[in-house]
Specification:
44% of the residues are buried. The chain has helices spanning 5-21, 32-39, 69-72, 92-100, 111-120, 129-134, 139-162, 169-188, 253-272, 279-292; strands spanning 26-29, 51-55, 60-65, 80-83, 104-106, 124-126, 199-205, 225-235, 238-248, 304-306, 313-317, 330-333, 336-339, 343-346, 349-353, 358-360, 375-376. It has ten helices and 17 strands. By secondary structure, the protein is α+β, with helices and mostly antiparallel strands.
């Protein structure tokens, strides 16, 4: 239990207060990230559902398959309830709803199970109470994210050193992932968490960099390529991102302009990340820079998003999102520009909102704060 029993007890108390205020009896949590946040126990996702239950009287329990009951008891939760996989005459989720009782709040549920839950507990609803708590990170959580930043930055530094014409995207990426994973296993000890993929990444080059979500391929890097790389590291389940666009050999002038514009957009978004500003205004700040450069048609995704136990979580830095920024929020700032048939550029940093401004948690990526610094010469 990395964050300590007191942290999770405080979370339970806050959820119980919300239940009491809303006149609800119980909260049933199926999201693995929410279960971990409330109990400190990390379950590997599987077809056998597990859940945490919080009651308005501050009791908490874990509902698990029988084969996981012994593991569940290794944490601080003493109320462990299990279901038998055989004969399995009742849906485990319906059984959990019965154990929880109503009025019942559930964070997420397969559509196929909803009817059975409503028949078992007539007064039930879907609402993610925990997501609202997870918006604001405590200092111990921020410390874990900061440490994850150190490893995602390290991976970015290693891939820059590794870039060379003639190697494939996949070979370069997988070599660095293996190296950094070994370093993390050695340095992190009990904080190394294989369930959360300690280090992952994507590398796209040439015209493939113009596809924001294209997977890494066997494409061979060549001179004058644009290479966009992004890494996500996780320490004890808490994530951070680092990313940049590099050049293999001399880039074309218009590609340099796109990189400069994306960097300016990222800086504008960061400057707009002050307490009280909305997620939408941060997105607008980045978009204005790109639009003034005449590149508005090359936008394909939001400016960024929250990060923590999930790689993508609220708040979302996009239009119509009026969530106000508050100290303790951790965000990914990654405006991108994508030109069909040419290439794409994107820079990625992880920041925390503090009392007066945003602070970058991975300052080592400042070494690439100019296009010249991103040039890998041969």
């Amino acid at each position: 239990m990395v964050l300590g029993e007191a942290f999770h007890r405080q979370v339970v108390n806050r959820l119980a207060e919300r239940l009491e205020k809303d006149e609800r009896h119980a909260l049933l949590l199926f999201s693995p990230e929410n279960i971990r946040y409330v109990t400190g126990i990390a379950f590997a996702p599987s077809d056998r559902p597990a859940a945490a239950c919080v009651w308005s009287d501050r009791r908490v329990a874990l509902f698990v398959p029988q084969l996981d009951a012994e593991f569940a008891s290794t944490g601080s939760i003493r109320d462990i309830r299990w279901y038998a996989e055989y004969p399995g005459e009742t849906s485990p989720i319906v059984w959990m709803a019965r154990e929880a009782g109503g009025p019942l709040v559930i964070d997420a549920l397969p559509a196929s199970e909803w009817k059975g839950v409503q028949e078992e507990v007539e007064e039930s609803e879907l609402s993610d109470y925990v997501a609202e708590l997870r918006l604001i990170k405590s200092q111990p959580e921020i410390d874990l994210i900061k440490r994850a930043c150190d490893f995602s930055d390290l991976a970015l530094e290693r891939i820059f050193a590794r870039l060379t014409s003639g190697s494939s995207e996949r070979d370069a990426l997988h070599e660095i992932l293996g190296v950094v994973d070994t370093i993390m296993r050695t340095e992190l000890g009990d904080l190394y968490d294989p369930l959360s993929r300690p280090i992952s990444g994507v590398l796209r080059s040439g015209t493939r960099a113009g596809y924001p979500h294209a997977p890494t391929s066997h494409r061979t890097l060549s001179r004058n390529d644009t290479v966009t790389v992004e890494f996500t590291a996780s320490v004890a389940g808490y994530h951070a991102k680092s990313g940049a666009t590099f050049f293999v050999g001399d880039p074309l002038r218009d590609v340099v302009r796109w990189v400069e514009t994306s960097m300016a957009a990222q800086a504008a978004a960061r400057e707009a990340m002050v307490p009280g500003a909305t997620a939408e205004t941060v997105d607008q700040a980045a978009r204005k820079v790109i639009e003034r450069a005449g590149l508005s048609g090359m936008l394909r995704h939001r400016t960024g998003h929250g990060i923590g136990l999930s790689t993508h979580e609220a708040p979302w830095l996009v239009r119509a999102q009026t969530t106000p920024l508050r100290p303790g929020m951790v965000l990914v700032n990654q405006p991108g520009i994508y030109v069909t048939g040419r290439t794409g550029v994107r820079n990625c940093e992880t920041v925390v909102i503090e009392e007066e401004a945003a602070r970058v948690l991975n300052p080592r990526i400042e070494r690439w704060n100019t296009p010249e610094a991103r040039l890998k010469e041969f």
